[in-house]
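ok so I'm stuck.
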Amino acid sequence: METSFAREGADRDACLPLRWGRETELTISAVQALDPLLKDGRPHTYRSGFLAQPVVRFTGQRDATGLLKAGFLTSFVNVSRVQQVRSLDDYGAVLDGWLTTLSRLGFHARHLRIYGTLRPWRRQQVEGITLRFAHLDLTLGDIVLLWHTDHPDRLAVDLGTGLERLAWARTQAHWHDLIYGRFAQAAPPATLDAIRTATLLLGSGIAAASRGAGGITRRVVSAIDPCAGRLGVSAIVRDAYDYWSLPGPLRAPWPEVACGIDREIQRQSGPEQHL
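replied:
not stuck anymore, here's the structure
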């Protein structure tokens, strides 16, 4: 996979494939584009520059009932700038450019805050310094200076936020309505989140299976309320499909995605649910 990535020069600003298969089954962050440089000590990256990267994570904060808190989703667009840099000045220039971008989006400088520590952390062969940025009381994301432990001259920057969280801070809209729009009251929140995520997975060609990345698809579909499935998921899938198509085209057409979700719901429900 590394060789094919390295040869993709014309697509350096394209999304990473959702099926990752290195240290994680799925792509969980655009920073994984820097793996060759930061983890393998090689002088190249899979991607460089601005990435609007769809990702799937199960680490979102939840309330006492197990529902995702406002501001968190199982799948979202990780808006990032990932690139190799040569000095701390380059790191500062990236941060300065991002503050200018936020200002143009309507985030006034007096409401922005940068916080964190300059003490380096280490995870296996990678070290880094993380600063976070917030608008009012809402943390939007972070900017990280990274380097390979054995090659400290190989520096990179990862500036990231969630597109949905950025829109939330900018609009001050109700989180549930912002994400699901006209379907916000069509099904329970957990079902809407699962259909949204399953659409991304199946649209990316990751069919439900018993293990591997397909096992994640199966796990996600299992969170869909079977009653919602019996009423049909096509309209919600179509809406989510249009959203996930914005960063880049999906592999499977939306009707195939909807059918895949319906089949998996039926398989998990068992024959007794369809008498």
